[in-house]
Amino acid sequence: MMKMETSVSLTPSTNPDTLHRTTDVAIVGGGPAGLMLAIELGCRGVACVVLEEDVGAPDFPKANATSARTMEHYRRRGFAHEVRQLGLAADHPQDVVYCTTLSGRELTRFSIPSRQQTIDRSAFGDYGEELWPTPELPHRVQQMLIEPLLREQTARYPSIDLMCGWRAQSVAIGADEVNIVAHGVNAAGDKTDAQLLLRAKYVIGCDGPRSLVRKTCGIQYSGQSEEERDFFGGQMLSLYFKSRTLYKVLGKQKAWMYWAMNAVQRGLMISIDGAEKFMFALQLKPGQTPETVDYRAALFAAVGAEFDFELMAKAPWQAGFTLVADQFAKGRAFIAGDAAHLFTPTGGMGYNTSVDDAVNLGWKLAAVIKGWADETLLDSYQAERKPIAERNTAFARSRADSVGLIGLPANLDEDSPAGAAARQALGAALHDHVRSEFNIPGLQLGLRYEGSPIVAVEAGAPHADEPTVYIPSARPGARAPHIWLDGQSIYDLFGLDYTLLCFTGATPAGVQAWQAAAEAMDVPLSVLRFGSRHSEELQSLYAANCVLIRPDHHVAWRGDAGTDPEPLLAMVCARARQVA
Ligand SMILES: Cc1cc2nc3c(=O)[nH]c(=O)nc-3n(C[C@H](O)[C@H](O)[C@H](O)COP(=O)(O)OP(=O)(O)OC[C@H]3O[C@@H](n4cnc5c(N)ncnc54)[C@H](O)[C@@H]3O)c2cc1C
C-alpha cells in the first residue's frame, strides 16, 4: 500500500468541551455505506467510530429498492428478515406500472411478487424463480426506513461507537495514523461548541457526494456530468406527501412504482407505505426552479386528476451523473459509497453499490487490523470495486437513456385508432425497457472480481456479463452460487471469515492439510464437510471437490483438496504474489 509522507501532530486543545478519542477505523458518514461498514467491523470486534452529522435518521425518501445482493449481505449479518418486514403491506403488489397519466390508461405493467409472496416463495411475478437463484429476492423499501434499522444493528456490537450529531471538519492523513477534527451539530443542524479530536489507524469517507475525505485526498470523479434527458437528466424535484384518497383516484391495481408517460407532464411516483405516503419526482423544465415551480399543477397533471394531499417535504436534486472516483484509496484513507461513485437512479444501484463497497472493505480492514492479512490486502479494495462501480454506473446510465429519451407522442391519450396505435407502440417499447431495468439477476448476482490480486487465476474465459442473465458459476472471483440444502441456504452455513467447502471428493488428508496450514498461518478458516447426500449436487454446481469462500461470499479458489494450501492462503491474505 502506498504510504504518504506527511507527518501529523494534534495541537493539544484547551477547549473544555473537547473530547479525545482513539480508535482503529474512523468512518466519516453514517449513511448506508458507513453503517454497513461499521457492522462488518463490529461483528469482527474491530473498534470503529462513525461520525454522522445528522442527529436523527433521514426523514426524506431517497433510494427505493434493495437488491438481492444487498439483501444477501443483510442475511449474512442476520437482519434480512427485519428489513423484509419494512415497507409496503405484506400483500401490496410491488409492481412497476407505466400509464398515460397515473389515473389513466395502463401502458404496461411489470409484476413483482409482494412481500408475503416472496417470504413464502409462492409467486415470482415476472421474475421467474429459476432466473433468480438467491435466498433473498430484491425488496422494495425506502432507504429512510432502512437507515434506522442499520443504526439499531450497530448497537449489537460493543466495538462500534456511532456518534450522531458530529460533523468532521478536517482530516489529516499521516504515514502511521489519521487525525480528524469534528464539531458538534445540534438537531437543527447548527454547529455547537463541542469539539472532537479523533485519532485512528484508517479513515473511511462514507460521506456522500461532497465527501470531505475524497476532497482531502485530492481525488476527482471522472465520467459524465449533468447529461440532459427528457427525464432523469436535469434538475429534479422530489415531493414527499400524504394522501388518503390517492389510491382511489388512481383506480387501478396497486403498484410500488408508477410512471406517468405523456407529452405534457412526465413523473415518477413511489408508494412508501402502501397506505398514504408517496414520493413523486418530476424534472423541471427550462426556466423552472425548485422554488418557483408549481409543483401542485405538475403533480395533478401527472396523476391526471386533482386530489387532496399534504406536502410533508420537498427536495431538489440533480439527475444525469455517471461518475466514478479516479482512486478509491490514498494512503490510510479510503472512500466508499456515493463518495466513490454517483449514479442516476435507474436500476436502483447507487445505494446497493454503496453497501457492497462497505462489505468488500469491511472484512479486509478487519483482517489487516487483526493481523491475519498483510496491509497490501487493502489494495484489492480499489482493484475489485472500481471496475464494479464502472460496470454499475454504465448500466444505470444506459437504462436512464432507455427510459429518459423515449419519445412520447402528443396523441397518446386520444380516443382514436391513431391514439390506440401510439399506446400500443409505446407499451411494447416500455415492456422491453422495464424488463431490462428490473429483471436484472445478472447485474445483481453476477458481479465478480476476476483478475483481483487475491483471487486465484483459472484458465478459460468466464461467461458474458449480462445484466438480465445470471448463470451460477463458482469460477474464482464470482459470488458463490446459492443452493437450498434441506430448506436452508448454503450461505447460512458459511463461517464469518474464510470457509472451505469440502465435498465427498475431497480426501480427509487434503482437508486436514488445509486446517493445519490455516492454523499455522493464523487465518480464520471454517471447514464445511458435506456428506454423500448433498455432495453430488454441490460438486456439480461448484465444479470442484474443494472451494475456498471469502468472507464476502465470493469464491477465492476452487480445485482439488490435495492442492498445497499454503501458497493459496498466502495469496488470499495478500501475503504473497498471485499463484496460478
Ligand atoms: C432524492 C434521491 C433519490 C435517490 N434515489 C435512489 C434510488 O432510487 N436508488 C438508489 O440506489 N439510490 C438512490 N439514491 C442514491 C442513494 O440515496 C445513495 O446512493 C446512497 O444514499 C449512498 O449511500 P452513502 O452511505 O454512500 O451516502 P449517503 O447516504 O449520502 O450518506 C452520507 C452520510 O454522510 C454524512 N456526512 C457527510 N459529510 C459529513 C461530515 N463531514 N461529517 C459527518 N457526516 C457527514 C451525511 O449526513 C450522510 O448521512 C437517491 C438519492 C437521492 C438524493
Describe the structure.
This protein is an alpha+beta fold. It folds into three domains: 18-59 and 144-224 and 322-389, 3-Layer(bba) Sandwich (FAD/NAD(P)-binding domain); 89-135 and 234-319 and 409-447, D-Amino Acid Oxidase, Chain A, domain 2 (2-Layer Sandwich); 451-572, Glutaredoxin. Helices cover 29% and strands 24% of the residues. Helix 1 runs parallel beside helix 9, helix 10 (379-404) packs antiparallel against helix 11 (417-438) and helix 13 packs across helix 15 (565-572).
Strand content: 15-25%
The parts where pLDDT drops under 50 for at least 5 residues are 1-12
Binned, the helix content reads 25-40%
Kindly state the number of beta strands. 26
> Average pLDDT across residues?
93
CATH class of the largest domain: Alpha Beta
* CATH homologous superfamily designation of the largest domain: FAD/NAD(P)-binding domain
The distinct ligands, each listed once, are:
flavin-adenine dinucleotide
Alpha carbon gyration radius: 25 Å
> Tell me, what's the shape?
globular
How would you classify the helix and strand content by structural class?
Answer: alpha+beta
Number of domains: 3
Summarize the structure.
The protein is α+β, with helices and mostly antiparallel strands and 580 residues long. 29% of the residues lie in helices and 24% in strands. The strands form six sheets. Strands 1, 2, 7, 8, 9, 10, 18 and 19 form an eight-stranded mixed β-sheet that branches. The protein has a seven-stranded mixed β-sheet with strand order 5-4-13-14-15-12-16, with helices on both faces. The chain has a four-stranded mixed β-sheet with strand order 24-23-25-26, sandwiched between helices.
